[in-house]
Amino acid sequence: MLRGTSCTGFTYDVSPGGLFVRSARLPDPGTPLTALLHLPEGKRIELKGRVMRAFRVPGSLRQVVPSGFSIRLADTPEDYFQFLATLGA
Question: H/E element holding 70?
Answer without folding.
Answer: strand 68-74
